[in-house]
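SEVERITY: medium
COMPONENT: batch folding queue
REPORTER: lab tech (J.R.)

DESCRIPTION
The queue accepted two submissions in a row. Attaching both inputs and their returned structure tokens so the on-call engineer can compare them side by side.

ATTACHMENT 1
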Amino acid sequence: MKTEQESKLQPGQTFPVTIKRLGINGEGVGYFKRQVVFIPGALPGEEVVAEVTKLQRGFAEAKVKRIRKASPHRVAPPCPVYEQCGGCQLQHLSYDEQLNQKRDVVAQAFERYTNIPMDKLDLRPTIGMEDPWHYRNKSQLQVGLQKQRIVAGLYGMNSHELIDISGCLIQHKATNEVTEKVKRVLERLDIPVYNERKQTGLIRTIVTRVAVQTGEIQLVLITAKKEIPRKEQLIKQLTTALPQVKSIMQNVNGQKTSLIFGEETFRLAGKEVIQETMGSLTFELSARAFFQLNPTQTVKLYDEVKNAAALTGKEKVVDAYCGSGTIGLWLADGAAEIRGMDIIAESIENAKKNAKQHGYDNTLYVTGKAEQWLPKWVKEGWRPDLVVVDPPRTGCDDKLLETILQVQPKKVVYVSCNPSTLAKDIAKLEKKYKVEYVQPVDMFPHTAHIENVALLIKQ
């Protein structure tokens, strides 16, 4: 008789497996003798021969050796460096099926973490893009030297090799073009690029952002030191080669860190900021300002928030984790009052500025956490009808969930970028709230990410 140990998978072992579903990181999930196995690149319904690459507590990781039976939804990934880069996880799956599978990932999270019967959950079809390519409005590419040529890209999966991706298929074409020309100018002027291992050289990262609606482009060169050799020539050649670039900035980051930006930013040419519009709102984007990476889908996401809120002009709204206030401003014309909070003071300054610029005087923005401000306002006699939360991937703070259960707004609209934490948080709110529906939105086609808007109604 085989012992438990013998029946378990071992590193290097090959085995046949049928893929049951996609995991949260876009990998195929199968079972071998009741042991769960994660296999990147494998698709639901496929029969593959896999090889164990790593054993973890409670599961194994493996790679595809051979596909015995391929999914009818499998396609050839159009990107030449798809396998090495790792920036996209689902280019080998047809786009329509990506939308179905992302909805299924959300369903799995609710099945696992909540008590909602699946036949009672109104989980809607994923809202996708008409054209799911070239949608990212910002690229941040590390710079390196390969065979005396400057390359710009990302470090390969689990490696320290820089993969040149200046023609990226999910980046806006304008950002690709700018990056390509910047590399050639740097080569011509022989400006040294940073070597991470030796910590020598100057140019670390090329950051390019395009304002999709206005067409304005901003270029930021991240440098290891403030002094740039042949600086005047560099500025002249960049402005000549790139007339479409309205703002050229320098950011200095001399630290040994994985963070892209340092503390100091300088203007090299053009304006400090570029203008972008989204719906009826206008935004000024500085070098370090956060802005949604896919504005086309962001409009659809925020419209879903608006539909869920269904405001009549009388409601008091709290925008928790408000950032620079975009969601609140999207709702402001239908609300009596919007109050937003964020722990980042700079974001709150931006939110105040944005509200003023758009002529909204029914807003109040404060620095801090919702769980500190909400009880204080309720004590003062101000109680929200609607709370909108858009937390980071880790989900809402437990104290905030407790505060919502105490304050009991009529509605909660939860905007989520992580189905697992969304489902876990909803499980805690289920004591007093019923999930009316969940609407997935595909913000990042060809990647494993999926956003959701969930409407919760007080029971």
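ATTACHMENT 2
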Amino acid sequence: MMRRLFPHPVLSLLLVVTWFLLVNKLAVGSLVMALILATLIPLATQAYWPQKPRINSLPLFAAYVGLVVWDVIIANIQVAKIVLFMPRDQIRSAFITVPITLKSPEAIALLAGTITMTPGTVTADMNGDGTALLIHSLHAPDPDAIRDDILNRYEARLKRIFE
């Protein structure tokens, strides 16, 4: 019965945590609302989840999350330096095509989300067959290095986690 009520328990847990982070208050009313959302949203979106995402290694996934958090902190500092101290005419924005070999839709979505969450970069598009992402970088003096960094730092880890 619990499995039918909570078809995606990890999503339900994330929704509860997210709700408490949004309301920033521990109260019975907040808990009730969090439980309502954690029950209804997974049930309403169940049809769009034909298969459960397969995570091969939770420790690798936890390490990936830690890496992304660290990279977001560092990127915030780098973007602040670029915006505050670099003359506008020296900023080299660029669109970069990143070829990907990930097959799992969840892994591709996580890669695109990671790129977008990291300040200074945003995923702008994905080609029709899912083999390349188009990203925009605020400052890309060496676009090939940014592409290689994304492939080596994120895609390689996501392959080990999902495939």
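NOTES FROM REPORTER
The radius of gyration is 19 Å.
No errors were logged for either attachment.
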